[in-house]
Write a sequence for this structure.
C-alpha cells in the first residue's frame, strides 16, 4: 500500500522483495558499532557546521535554513554511511545528491500530484534520471561491497561474522547483515549495492526536514529561557579541551524534548500506517463501517498530534513539553519512543528503524550550533506546506546568525 501511495513501484520497483533486513542494520549493527565511528562523525559534523555557518564573530549572516541543513546533514551522514575515503569522492557525492533530489521530486510529483491513472504513461519516463544516477552509484559501490563480502567470508567462523577490524561504516554493517540473512540475492554485491542506495540515500532528507522545522519552531518560539537551557545543556556535551562522548548526547534531554515537539507539530506525513484491505469480503471496523477489498486505510497522525484531548494547547510550540515538568530538563518521553499518540516515526513493525541514528544527528547539530552561534529570532513561524500527504518544510525560510566565539 505504501508502495502505491509514494509511487515506490516506479522509483524503486521490487525493493520489498530484495529486503535482506535493513531494519537490523539500523536497529542493531548501527547501535552496537556507532561508538567506533562517533569521534569521526562529530569531527565531520563540526567541520560541516563551521564551514557552512562560518567562523566570523563580527558580522551576521543570513542563510536559507533548508539548504544549510542539507549541507550539514548530508556531509556528516556520508561519513557514517560510506566511511572514508568514499565520503569525499566527488563523483559519488554528485550522483548521490542528484539521486536523492530526483527521489524526493518523484515522491512528490508521481506519488502525490499526478493522478494515479497517468502514472503508467509518465512514470517510466520521469524515473529515467533517477535510474541513471542509481546505475552510476551501483557501478561505483559494487566493487566495495564485493571486497567487504570477501573479507567477511574469509573471517567466517560459526554463525557470527566479526566486523571489528573492518571499516566502521554502514557498508560493512549492511554486508554483515546480508551475509547472515542467507538470501542468495543479498550476497550478490551488485544487488546489495542497489538495495543499499535505495534504502539509505533518500532517508537523509527526513533529517534535513526535521532540522529545518526545528529551527523554524525554536527561532519563532520567543523563549529566551529555552535558548539559555539548550546552550547550558550543550556545554555538558562539549566540555572545553575534551572530545565529546556518545554518552553525553544521551543527556541532551531538552534538545530531545524540543525535537519531539517539532515532530509532533510537524510530522513528515499527514497520515501514517498505510494499509490496504486485502480480504475479498472486505473488513468491518469496530464501529460498524464496511470497508470493501482494495480500500486504502491509514491513521491521521497530524490530527492526533493536534488533538487537544491528547495534547494541551496543541498548536503552541513548547520545547519543554516532553520533559518532566515546566521548564525542567529531565525527560518524560524520549524522542525515539513510538506510541499511538506520537506517530512522528510511525508505529509497530514498520516504524522508523533509523530513528536513534537520526536523533544522534539532530541533537549533535543542535548542541554544537546553540553553543557556538547566536541567532536572531523570527517574527513568525515560517509555514509548512501540505503536498498530498507530505508535510513539506518551509524550504525558502532564512535565519540570521553569528559565531559567538564561545569555546567549543
Ligand atoms: C527525523 C528523521 C526521520 C523521521 C521523522 C523518519 C520517519 C519515518 C517514518 C514516519 C517512517 C514510516 C513510513 C511508513 O511506513 O509510514 C519511516 C520509515 C523508515 N525510515 Fe525513517 N525517519 C527519519 C530518519 C531516518 C534515517 C536517518 C534512516 C536511515 C538511516 C531512516 C530509515 C528508515 C527506513 C529504512 C524506513 C522503512 C521501515 C520499514 O518499512 O520497515 N529513517 N521513517
Amino acid at each position: 500500500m505504501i508502495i502505491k501511495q509514494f509511487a515506490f513501484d516506479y522509483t524503486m520497483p521490487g525493493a520489498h522483495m530484495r529486503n535482506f533486513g535493513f531494519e537490523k542494520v539500523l536497529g542493531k549493527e548501527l547501535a552496537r558499532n556507532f561508538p567506533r565511528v562517533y569521534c569521526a562523525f562529530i569531527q565531520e559534523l563540526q567541520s560541516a557546521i563551521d564551514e557552512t555557518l562560518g567562523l566570523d564573530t563580527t558580522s551576521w549572516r543570513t542563510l536559507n535554513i533548508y539548504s544549510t541543513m542539507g549541507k550539514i546533514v548530508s556531509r556528516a551522514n556520508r561519513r557514517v554511511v560510506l566511511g572514508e575515503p568514499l565520503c569525499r569522492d566527488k563523483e559519488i557525492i554528485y550522483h548521490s545528491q542528484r539521486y536523492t533530489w530526483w527521489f524526493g521530486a518523484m515522491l512528490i510529483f508521481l506519488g502525490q500530484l499526478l493522478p494515479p491513472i497517468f502514472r503508467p504513461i509518465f512514470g517510466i519516463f520521469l524515473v529515467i534520471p533517477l535510474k541513471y544516477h542509481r546505475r552510476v552509484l551501483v557501478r561505483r559501490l559494487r566493487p566495495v561491497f564485493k571486497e567487504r563480502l570477501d573479507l567477511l567470508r574469509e573471517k567466517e567462523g560459526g554463525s557470527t561474522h566479526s566486523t571489528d577490524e573492518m571499516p566502521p561504516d554502514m557498508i560493512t554493517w549492511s554486508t554483515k547483515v546480508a551475509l547472515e540473512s542467507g538470501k542468495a540475492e543479498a550476497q550478490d554485491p551488485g544487488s546489495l549495492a542497489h538495495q543499499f542506495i535505495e534504502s539509505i540515500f533518500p532517508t537523509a532528507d527526513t533529517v534535513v526536514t526535521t532540522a529545518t522545522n526545528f529551527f523554524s519552531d525554536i527561532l519563532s518560539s520567543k523563549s529566551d529561557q529555552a535558548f539559555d537551557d539548550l546552550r547550558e545543556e550543550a556545554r555538558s556535551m562539549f566540555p572545553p579541551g575534551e572530545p565529546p562522548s556518545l554518552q553525553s548526547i544521551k543527556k541532551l534531554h531538552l534538545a530531545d524534548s524540543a525535537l519531539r515537539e517539532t515532530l509532533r507539530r510537524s510530522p513528515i506525513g499527514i497520515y501514517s500506517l498505510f494499509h490496504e484491505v486485502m480480504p475479498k469480503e472486505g473488513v468491518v471496523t469496530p464501529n460498524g463501517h464496511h470497508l470493501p477489498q482494495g480500500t486504502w486505510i491509514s491513521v491521521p497522525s497530524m490530527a492526533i498530534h493536534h488533538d487537544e484531548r491528547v495534547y494541551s494547547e496543541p498548536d503552541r510550540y513548547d520545547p519543554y513539553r516532553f520533559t518532566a515538568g515546566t521548564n525542567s530538563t529531565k525527560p518524560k518521553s524520549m524522542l525515539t519512543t513510538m506510541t499511538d499518540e506520537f506517530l512522528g516515526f510511525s508505529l509497530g513493525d514498520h516504524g522508523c528503524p533509523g530513528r536513534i541514528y537520526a536523533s544522534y544527528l539532530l541533537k549533535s547539530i543542535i548542541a554544537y550550533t546553540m553553543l557556538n552561534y547566536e541567532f536572531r529570532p523570527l517574527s513568525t513561524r515560517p509555514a509548512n506546506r501540505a503536498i498530498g500527504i507530505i508535510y513539506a518544510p518551509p524550504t525558502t525560510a532564512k535565519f540570521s546568525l553569528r559565531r559567538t566565539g564561545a569555546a567549543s
Residues 1-268+300-403 form a domain with the Cytochrome p450 fold (CATH 1.10.630.10). DSSP finds 16 helices and nine strands in the chain.
